[in-house]
Amino acid sequence: MLEKIDLNRKLSKKEYKKQQSKLQRGLYDLETAAWKAGIPSIIIFEGWDAAGKGTTISTLTQRLDPRGFKLYPIRGARTYEKMHPWLWRFWLKLPNYGEMAIFDRSWYGRVLVERVEHLTPGREWRKAYRDIVDFERTIADDGYVLVKFWLHISKEEQRRRFKLLEKDPLKRWQVTEEDWEHHRKYDEYLLAVEEMLERTETEWGPWTIVEATSRWWARAKVFNTIINALDERLQEKGVLTEALAGEDEDYVEEVELEAEAAAESKEDTDEA
Fold first, then answer.
1. 215 and 270 in contact (C-beta within 8 Å)?
2. Which of 35, 164, 186, 228 has an alpha carbon within 20 to 30 A of 171's alpha carbon?
3. Domain count along the chain
4. What CATH number should be reported for the domain holding residue 236?
5. Residue range 64-80: average pLDDT?
């Protein structure tokens, strides 16, 4: 599956900047409409280390109403969480109706890092595929919009990004020995990813593979995928989405320009 992905797909920074304000404003309007319609949504970000999950999420949430979403960076289960069924800690993070939950990694760690690093017995991670499909079917049947991303880069691109981060004294802390160990096991992880995508691709929880070599292409694709998913669900409910009336356009433009300037200043120091 992943060998057929064209990782050379690109979007110039100039073209992306032309779209950014419209995409952010469109997502904000849809967040507001989903809140009013009581439609909950879950956005999952999975992908390779250094593929750009964090910076993509940062851009995604920059113009959202913070009252309407929660961001969950997922790490290994804590001791008390291991005393419950393994999906219990994720059930507790499901958003209220009308709200959005964004997962920076998710329950898919069960069949990725826990599998490859032998943190979970084979019998348990193999059973997790069925657990995940059933879990996602349950929340989809309850009206949740489920959007799942895999941010994909090559082994060579990942190594290049690690090296760039290590050269920056302000960012080298982001690359650990564990990251390099995962990099050395890229092919093992690739097999796990392929099986994960194949066995958890469903009508109610489809995967979107994001070609992430170009961060501008990746961000635009993520925005458009979420916008289309929310818009489709709102239309199913008979809700017409439109820009909020009564806002001062000059003020909106000023806020957007300030946000873009701040983001651009940060992005210019990031990896290409």
1. yes
2. 186
3. 1
4. 3.40.50.300
5. 96
